[in-house]
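Q: I'm writing up a methods section and want to include an example of the input and output format. Could you take the sequence below and give the corresponding predicted structure tokens, formatted cleanly so I can copy it straight into the document?
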Amino acid sequence: MEFPKPLPPISGRGAPTNLRPTRTGSLEREADGDWLDAADDIDGDAPPVRTTVTIEHPKTIIARNTSPDIGFDRSLNPYRGCEHGCIYCFARPTHAFHDLSPGLDFESRLFAKPDAASLLRAELAKRGYLAAPLAIGTNTDGYQPVEREWGITRSVIEVLAETRHPLIITTKSNRVLHDIDLLADMARDNLVGVAISVTTLDPAVARTLEPRAPHPRRRLDAIRKLIDAGVPTQVNISPIIPAITDHEIEAIMQAAAEAGAIRASYILMRLPHEVAPLFRAWLAAHYPDRADKVMHMVQDIRGGRDNDAGFFTRMKGQGVWAELIRTRVKRAARAHGLDRSFPSLRSDLFRPPERGGQMELF
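A: Here is the clean output for your methods example:
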């Protein structure tokens, strides 16, 4: 199995290259081998990759889906791109539609939607709107570092708390604790559930795999504090990467149970579109000793391909390795009391916001 020439890791970033999209008609940029060999002598160290944020003004903010293997039909993304820089992120290919790279551009050239709360308020106020759990963080993380300055996720939750609208949050950041006041208030009415993603407990692995996400122990601490505040919280062992993180399944389960998580879920790593070559480049840079083994296991799980986009199988995989992982997850969850059902969220308390600043007569 062929892998690209290893590129030097970029400090604080996940992708080792700015692979260009090919599905949108753009030419792929490739680093010239001779230039790579002479770069240090001629240019010295490359300048750091800095994060930039572009304001985006969408017309609507709620995204709908009809996927049969997803437990919600609507979601909201305060940001495009994600500074956490997780090399495995299945959302990376979305940057190709902006003619930007799913590589470094995805984690450094971000888009913020400061109108998200007002757009959400308008959509919730439409006649005939029926409330159902709204998911945040299922594409890009609503609590990535730029949330500190922009506060868009909090402004959205404020609208949901005001209207008593059910909410599902998925994040790998302890920054969610900044909104624990709102979440605890919603939890009292069974309106919110949180999933904290923990991929590895090894900080050395985390630094290369998800370089700008908080330390795994901080995420476990977030689970503990959310549970103490009455917010139902589960651990999401996602993604599980064969021969890289799969040996940690039982240890993560135990740590999450000790933190008080009420259940556990998992997803096997997905490599859609440009994520596959980026992951191969990451393997070549960080795990050259086992790169071939990892990709053979990935392809075994994905029916001989790098990725399987089929409903249901895309999350859990198929074949011997997938079944082995599934069995281990079930056994560990049962052993640590993490095989319980997540509480159903209420939708009957929803009250639409005022339209046009005025209360309705009827």
